[in-house]
Amino acid sequence: MVKIAVFASGNGSNFENLVLKMKDGLLKGDIVFLIVDKKNAFALERAKKLGIEAIFIDPKSFSSKEEHEKEIVSNLKERDIKFIALAGYMRIIGETLLKEYEGRIVNIHPSYLPELKGKDSIKRAFEAKKDFTGVTVHFVDSGVDTGKVIYQEKIVIDKKWSLEELEEEVHEREHKIYPKALNLIFDKENF
Ligand code: GRF
Question: I want to staple 76 with a disulfide (CB 3.0 to 4.6 A). Which of 56, 58, 81, 154 is the partner?
Fold first, then answer.
């Protein structure tokens, strides 16, 4: 099975959910590695509990984005990683990683793209009183949330929901669709 690395910056609920799905035999890939760019990312705790190898690669200890990404690539190659799933990784993927992995990096975004690209999409959907938002899994290219869509679902926003309730709905939906979207890719292509 394809060896996958997950990249995260914070909470890591999508990471944990993917690993649990894998452990239940519901993911057609093998998550073997977590990379974080924040020392205190809670995703690290989750990895420990789940028995998944995890490392923190500190962007601040490199002179450039290129050097940082070279270190990432070397760690990925050492472990024979063929595919990257971003899950709350708050960093734009640069040329060095794209050159090695373009077409093999995906991201999950909490909106119905191309609506609400970028940060704080759930909050922006809530504040703009949108009728719907959604969740999108897409390939990563050099833009921000611009790559080809793999799978997306709409979420109709109940006007009675608080922001917290909307966030809960979105995360719940993310946990359903990320494994599904990955399986769609792995069904079609061998990496
Ligand atoms: C998710 O909403 C994801 O769509 C976005 O960042 C958030 C990460 O959540 N890219 P978590 O760290 O997986 O809990």
Answer: 81
